[in-house]
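Discussion board: Methods & Data

I've been asked by a reviewer to show the raw model output for two of the constructs in my manuscript, not just the figures. I'm not sure how much to include, so I'm pasting the format here to get opinions. Each protein appears as its amino acid sequence followed by a line of discrete structure tokens. Is this the kind of thing reviewers expect to see in a supplement, or should I convert it first? Here is construct A:
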Amino acid sequence: MRDWAVALAGAVALLVASWALLILLARRLPPGLLRDLAAFVPDCVTMVRRLRRDPRVPRRAKLAILLAGLWVASPVDLIPEFLPVIGPLDDIVVVALALRYAGRQVPRDVLLAAWPGETRLIERLLGTPSASQGTA
């Protein structure tokens, strides 16, 4: 039993060390597409938390955003995460679709205020504002 505990502790330590290395490497990425992609999912998680608590967000949009957040957190993926470059692609697509849906349901200024990353990224994802939403 002790051997299993040691092996489990070693596996957990290796996992935490690999996460720390990935975070360090992601922060050292030069500005550009790869850096934007590395920051996209963490920024989306922060946005989901903020929008979930906002009373101006309709229930349907909260549900779509919550489902996207659960998808990202779920260990089940259409494309395994360990595949380089394309691994997180299914997470990005699901989150992007949920945010596009929320973009049609939630006032644009609420979405922009909830986004922690660069504004140009969320604006590109949401597209041009519709005449019914405006920016005021």
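Construct B, same format:
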Amino acid sequence: MRRRKNRANDQAEVNMTPMLDIVFILLIFFIVTATFLQEEGLNMQPPPQSPETPPDPAPVILVDVNDQGRVFVNQQQTDPERVLAAVSRFRAENPRSAVLIAPQYQADHGIVVLIWDDMQANGIPVSVQPAERVQQ
């Protein structure tokens, strides 16, 4: 007996139902286990205007450091190690005053850091604002 080979039905079909079941089970698993955070926003409205006038700001003690290593405290030349004493004299007159260090572009960073550390160690408010760079 001779067998007939039917080549037309050799194409296999893929059953998609089990794959869809797995996808839906994974989807449900991730939805159940996911944590949704409630993020809080920042209030960007400015505070209301105060009817009181602000107090007079304290004078700033200006410490200039130039590129030759000279230090000036309120336009008075001072040794870099004696800046704290000079600042303390000015703060004796007005204890609320803060220090602004204004180094020139080519100033020695070690001197600036020394002054900064002295002010921070003694609880004196200090900030640094470099002088404008002069184009040559």
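Answer (T.O., handling editor elsewhere):
This is acceptable in a supplement if you add a one-line summary per construct. For B, something like: The mean pLDDT is 84.
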